[in-house]
Each structure stands twice: as C-alpha cells, then as structure tokens.
Give the backbone structure.
Amino acid sequence: MGETILNHYSDNAKAVIYNGSCLDFVCSLPDRRIKLIVTSPPYNIGKSYEKKTRLSEYYKEQEKIIDECVRILADDGSICWQVGNFVSNGEIVPLDILLFPIFQKHKLKLRNRIIWSFGHGLHASKRFSGRYETILWFTKNNEYTFNLDPVRIPQKYPNKKHFKGAKTGEFSCNPLGKNPSDIWDIPNVKNNHIEKTIHPCQFPIELVERLILSMTDEKDIVFDPFLGVGSTTAAALKNNRVGIGCETIREYYDIALERAKAAMEGSLQTRPINKPIYDPNNPKQTLDFEKTLQIQKSIAQRSLFAEGA
Ligand SMILES: C[S@@+](CC[C@H](N)C(=O)[O-])C[C@H]1O[C@@H](n2cnc3c(N)ncnc32)[C@H](O)[C@@H]1O
C-alpha cells in the first residue's frame, strides 16, 4: 500500500498526485505536517496552461494558496517559491518582489533569495536577455532543518593544505566540499536536456534535489501545489522522501505519474547533480570534475575514518 500512488493523502503513502486544482486539494491536508513546499507557480504570462489576468487578480490567487501552504507547513519546515518575471509590453515585474508581502504577512523568515542562472532563453532586442530566476526560501521558525553536507559542491583545490602555523599539513578547506552559495548555475530544461518532456517550463530535477536534500530528511513530506510534469515528486521519491503534488492538466498529470513510477523503480533519467556545464573552450572540464570528485571522496573518507565516525 505504501508504494501506491494515491489521489488522497494517507499516512502510509509514498506519493500522492492529484489531477485538479491545488486549492481544492490542499484543504484535505492536515495542519503542520509538510516539511518542504517547493513550487514554480504559473507566472501569469499567457503560457499554454494559464490565462493571463490582471496582476491584482493573480496576486489574490497566489495569496489563497500561500495562506494554505503556511497552514500545512511543519514548524521546522521550509517554503521555496521559484518565480521569474511577469512581462507586459517589455516592462518586467519581478514576481518574487510582488509576492514577498504575502510571506511577510505570515511572519515567515527569508533565509535566502537564490539566484538560479541559466544559459538559454528568449533573445530580447530592447533590453538585456533574461537569464535568471529566483527562489525565495522561507522558514516558519528559527529552528529548521538544514543539511549542508549532502549538497556541498567540489572545492576548486580539494588538496590544498595549511603551509604554516599550528595547522601545517592539515587540509585548509572542508574535504566534504564547499557551500554551493546562493547563486546556482544549473541548465534549464530545453530541447536537448535529458529530462525534457512536453511541458514548456519544467524544473531541472537537480535544482529541486538540492532543496530537498538540504531542507528535509528521509521520509519527510515534500509538496508541490503546481506540479507540472512532476519534477518535485520525482526528486522526492528518488531521495526516499514522500512526494505530494497537484496538476490541473491531465496530460501533465499523466507524465507526472509516469515519472514518479520511474523514480520509485530507479529508472528515472536525470542530469547528474553538480555536473559541470559544457564549455566548448574547456571540454576537458568534465573529466577534471570527475577527478576532483574522486579526490574529494577519498579525502572525505579518510577524514571520516580519522574521526572514527
Ligand atoms: C510553471 S509550471 C510548473 C512546472 C513544474 N515545476 C515541472 O517541473 O513540471 C506551473 C504548472 O501549474 C499548473 N497549474 C496552474 N494552475 C493550477 C492550479 N490551480 N492547481 C494545480 N496546478 C495548476 C499548470 O498547468 C502548470 O503545469
């Protein structure tokens, strides 16, 4: 039963994927049980899956779902709202700035405004082409889950050691890797991306994975109210978390189900987390990266043994 993909929340579910509006579904979720809510809502820019409305209307709709998300969020949980710009006549309104007061109203605490940068998108002619979006990461309280080690990235010089002073000979940087910072350069899902489906704007799995691995523990519940083709539930299931999500469009919902099943079976195709972006001027970089990872792993293992862990 725990393996089944259900339409209604139950305590032993591994995944709940609902074909319908998140506002209808969210009322069925109990208070303060969800560890992480991560989503990319519609941007109100007239994509195939949305109807463009006045910004004030859009704000009200977003407010309704954010209010409910705060109700269902665990006391040590996090909300990550990933948005770009609303665009009208070439004029932009950054949606994170628009929506920020809703989170403030609930006294949520902003931990990071993560810049997600990527290389591909529309080419603007009367302004600079947009190549980033943001993730607002809020916690409900000051005590919250944050696991840095699973999301550390390779050090540039993993073998570097102190050459003078009391620590001479010891590694001068954390052998487990460095903090990935609040600027994330992760390729967006375009046509040649291994995860590409029919959805026009899906999350890269590695983007959600970094949030899930750092802000939840195994078996925690992750909810995405605007699920699309299920990148969030797939990333949750791949990492032994419970994935819950809602999607109104039947075609996307069906793909989300397929991807959830693949994630459970271990056959989901994903771009590996932290893989370097291809640089035609430095094609050897991927090999160097693999080497760095290996060095880092062996150093980390040595240091773990040394600590008797
Ligand atoms: C920006 S896309 C999310 C894509 C998703 N992150 C992924 O990786 O596939 C927003 C999605 O929300 C869906 N949607 C719009 N209004 C909705 C609602 N009220 N309830 C649930 N889903 C909705 C749209 O159909 C669209 O697929």
About this structure: The two ends are 36 Å apart (CA to CA). Residues 75 and 140 are 6 Å apart (CA to CA).
